[in-house]
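Justification of resources, computational component.

The compute hours requested in this renewal are based largely on the per-chain cost of generating structure records like the one below. Each record pairs the submitted sequence with a full structure-token output. That output is archived, and it is also reused by downstream analysis tasks.
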Amino acid sequence: MKSELIYPAAGMLQATQLSIQLASLGYCDTALLDSQLNSLFVFNPTKTIEIYGNNELNLHLGLIYLKKILLNPWKQWNRPIRSIVDSFFKVAKYILQSTPVQKKLLSQLEKIKEQINYFGSIDHPLIFNNLADIYVELSAQLNLNLKIFGQQKFLQNQEILNKIRVCLLMGIRSAVIWKQLGGQFFSLFLYREHISHKINHLFKNK
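The structure output for this chain reads:
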């Protein structure tokens, strides 16, 4: 298994955890959200970790949860998590099989990157709104019926809902990377001891 597959795996799980935090609590770790948000705008990386800001700690939450899943899959790899990750894979497959979809997505993200430069901030509400629209468009094309469980007062708050959708879009980005690297999810469990050791090593050296 390619060691760099750890990063998109952690990216998917971190995006999942952030979306669940937002739906359940109304907030999430903004530093992790902002750092992973940048992964949507790295178009030509020379290595995988560049997509995540050249820093494994930007995937801290995802790496921790990946280790938990590998150590205790029956408890941690539950249905809500699986359904979200499965939706990432479904959309990623759709994107990778369609050149027109890829071109349109790239054009949309390039325009939003220009908006980020204009506003001078990646956290501007309009940025989240426009990214959320991309997620809504992609999910509509596939008739996704993904349900994120949380408190209705947060799920009905448009600003929070936009952030949840952006987190899901970040997860799709990581799923695309995973598929481009030839990842197979069962291999995570096959090499769980190696991966757990790798994660411990990453944190030890930071």
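The chain has a mean pLDDT of 91. The domain at 3-204 is CATH 1.10.3890.10 (YcfC-like).
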